[in-house]
Structure formats: C-alpha cells, structure tokens
Design brief:
about 270 residues, alpha/beta, Rossmann fold, OB fold (Dihydrolipoamide Acetyltransferase, E2P), 2 domains, 5-stranded parallel beta sheet
Length: about 270
Amino acid sequence: MMPLRTALIAADESLPAAHLRAELRQVWSDLAVTAVATNGVQALARALELRPDVCFLDIRMPGLSGLEVAQALAEDWTDDPGVPFPLLVFITADDQDAMQAFELQAVDYLLKPLVRARLQSCCQRLQQQLARRDVLHPSEPDRLQMLARRLPSLLAPSMATPHRLEFIQVQTGHTVEMVPVDEVVYFEAADKYLRVLTADREHLIRMSLRELINQMDERRFWQIHRRILVQTRCISRAVRDEQGRLGVVLRQRSEILPVSRIHAHLFQGM
C-alpha cells in the first residue's frame, strides 16, 4: 500500500489555487493537500509547521516570493532524518523564472494557465522521486511510530515548569568551569555540539540547541536562526546587506549573526 502523501499549495490568487487543488485530485488521488497559503510568509510558516512532502509555490506572491520561501525553507528546515526536505514545484506565468527555480533544486515548474497533461507528468516525476526517497528515509507509518515513541518526551516540557539554566558547565582539560548564562552573548549549533560565545571567550559543550532552548528564558534569549540563540541585551541593531539579508550586530563581539526570514519579525521595531 502506497503511503499517503501531503502537499502545500501557495498562491495569492484563490481561483488558480482552487483549480490546482481540483486538478490534483484527478491526477493524484492519494495526495492530501493539507494547507493552501495565500502569501509567502504564510506559506513558509505552514510548511515548517506541517512538513509536507511536496510544496507547490507560486513564484509571484506578496510578502515573500516562491523563490524566497524556498530559500528560507532551506535555512530553517530542521535536520531530522525522519522528515526529509519537501520536493518543490514552482508555478509561474513566465518560463524565464524556470532557470532560477532549478537552481533552488526544484523538481519541476508549471506554467499558467495550468494544463492537466503537464500537471500529470509533473506528478509522475514527484511520485518517482518520493519512491526513491523512501528507500533512504522512514515511511509514513514508521514516522508515526517514531512520533508516538517521542510523544512523552515532547509533552513533558509543556506539562512541567521548565528548569531555567543559570550556569553552563564547560570542561577545559581536567577542569570544569561554571560559566554564568548572563555572560553568554550567543549559542551556535555545530554538529552535535554547541558553541558558547561570551564577550571574549569561546567554549564547546555537548548539547543540542533544542535541548538548550527548553531551559532558557525566551525573553532573554531569542532564536534568530535555526542554529543560533542570542541574548537580547547583547543585540545592538539589525542591519540588511546589499542582497537584503538581515543580520544582527552585537555589542560585545565583532561578527554579524544571520537572521532567518522566519525570525525576521523579531526586529520589525528596531
């Protein structure tokens, strides 16, 4: 039995979105459209929340374009082997956009107005890639079983008052040093470790960023990127580079930290 596949449609015009959804029912009966987003910001948030197998992204959307949504997804998608990155299909009225779409690892693109035969060939390509992907990643039942096993640990933090860290234990040789959390400028995930950066020092601890976040005061530390947690009082200002990418300038360190699009709203008032 083939696993149920899920999809997200992102298009700012309701009629084309409804038409695509109806056509998908005809050419891919076991594909469930779990969300229809009307702008790029909503599409990004829903994709990160629902983790669909396929995203159909209109290139021209308000807020974020389909291409920008794809770039932001690449930045913010968590490295969970049980939830692989979605397959991307771009929708456009101009085939000149296709080249840029394929640079973002798109599986295919669809031209407006939609032609069923073209959509059918696109869906066949998607099904083939999903079938190949299943060889390397867990199937849907396995993913559900994995989630069921993890539910107690996922629910536990929300059922109890979280323990807030006041000190970080770091080891140097045979010495264990207690670094006050208040002295930490930011944390950065690095493989299975975390870099702990103070104003003038750097430490390495074995802990995941997700585990750390559960023990931090979200008013004092903001997650600005899937790899970075920064102390708010250490933020001087937010700036944009020539490509329009947002970054954070720190008070006590010289590096500029990247800000993912999904977290850019934190700096609207700055």
